[in-house]
Amino acid sequence: MPKGTLLVAGTTSDAGKSVVTAGICRWLARRGVRVAPFKAQNMSLNSFVTADGAEIGRAQVAQAQAAGVEPTADMNPILLKPGSDRRSQVVVLGRPLADVDAMEYGAYKDRLRQVALESYQRLRAAYDVVVCEGAGSPAEINLRRGDIANMGLARAADIPVVVVGDIDRGGVFAALYGTLALLDAGDQALISGFLINKFRGARELLEPGLDMLRAMTGRPVYGVLPWLDGLWMDLEDSLALDGRSRPAVAGPADGDVLRVAVVRYPRISNFTDVDALAAEPGVVVRFVTSGAEVGELREADLVVLPGSRATVADLDWLRRTGLAAALAARRGPILGICGGYQMLARSIRDEVESGAGLVEGLGLLPASVEFAAEKTLARPVGEAYGCRVAAYEIHHGTVTVAWPGSQGDREAEPPADGRVTSFDQVEPFLDGCRAGAVWGTTWHGALENDGFRRAFLAEVAAAAGRRFVPASGVSFAALRERQLDALGDLIERHVDTDALLRLLEEGAPAGLPVLPPGAP
């Protein structure tokens, strides 16, 4: 039974570190190995709440599922959630610590490095194997001195490193060689080999390059992972959303396709909420990224406003792009989730996240929002459409619904755009409300509940006038398991797993050559 640790680094963000780490976890778990994932520092707007109420990155949750273990805060002890180009919320062991800019963050590095190492050591004591995932690239030499996620972690814990390169981007040999060459001698000593990801083409044409890379670096290419169509897995950041559109899985021949438009604002978060919609046969999911696509909002059968790390700023973006006006003019279904729900309210008072004070919302739901300093982190369970719904909450904004007949049912002064400000028919919806064809909830993950999702889509189809009948028997949890199995298959079939086992048991090979010039 192998015992040890390995760090999966990448030449760039989105090179495939997360999926390779998940694949290794699934492959080892199949062998009966007690394995856990670990990412010391993660920058992501996709997060999840663990069973004990800690917020961690969704990628580590998926990796824990691949390993067959319950996710914990130790698997992602430091989570950075960007709120702008310069400022991020720092979440430590699942709880928000501070909002800092890039320069202020340096003052926390020594403390956070110790937190990360302690989490790593707890995992090492509890599991046979810990598979670590790096962040960005280890060759970001301007950040090396304070690094705690890549070579800083590897050096502190003597962890062998495998570097993943994305051949679909082009330039993979230069990226792999250059990543190694930019590191100092001590870091290079732990770079044990390479993996090439997303290959499609004739393997025989690639082989000479693999041989030359091995000769130039003294390190093997442990495997070439083929491009896998239809692969998705709890994406870490919106970089991976560029150009992303999920075509419909084949639906009933006599039914309509249901078109879903998801608004991708600049600080979109937890956009994985819509993956369950895209998994439904006959549903097409498209991300709307600019005002030029306002027609998508008009033509869609359902518009989803997902979560946001910067609710007020993203609401302003909706207005500047003209998408807010398109939403106000819609008569078809709209679903707001968390930050999107908050935008649908009449008003937002935010002295916490943006400091903007009182801001007018879209006014499509009879509600008001107040931001609190303390973040709500919870795993609620409820019921809707007669179905059990398990979900999770991550938000600073608290929504208060003005139910019909209550004191807040009417605004003191109607807004200048003439929107209807009285809602005679308002119904509960999960923890939020529904008014006509507009639904709002703070609950993430609700759509992953199969019965609820089908009932909700049936309601949407009826409101949109579509002949769409959700398929029965579609299990989103089973689909996710199949995705994780596919990642395990990739590792088992296309990687030198005997070499990975040697790295786990013996560490980095001794005497690996050092490439010039090396970073100072």
Describe the structure.
This protein is an alpha/beta fold and 520 residues long. The protein folds into 2 domains: 4-39 and 59-69 and 116-232 and 480-503, P-loop containing nucleotide triphosphate hydrolases (Rossmann fold), CATH 3.40.50; 252-470, 3-Layer(aba) Sandwich (Rossmann fold). 30% of the residues lie in helices and 27% in strands. It contains 15 helices and 28 strands. Strands 13-16-14-17-19-28-27-26 form an 8-stranded mixed β-sheet. α7 (203-217) links the parallel β11 (191-199) and β12 (221-226). α1 crosses α14. The longest helix has 19 residues, at 476-494. It starts with a strand and ends in a 14-residue tail after the last helix. Residues 411-421 have low confidence and may be disordered. Residues 7-231 form the CobQ/CobB/MinD/ParA nucleotide binding domain. This is Cobyric acid synthase. Catalyzes amidations at positions B, D, E, and G on adenosylcobyrinic A,C-diamide. NH(2) groups are provided by glutamine, and one molecule of ATP is hydrogenolyzed for each amidation. InterPro entries: Class_I_gatase-like, CobQ/CobB/MinD/ParA_Nub-bd_dom, CobQ_GATase1, CobQ_N, CobQ_synth, GATase_3, P-loop_NTPase. Pathway: Cofactor biosynthesis; adenosylcobalamin biosynthesis.
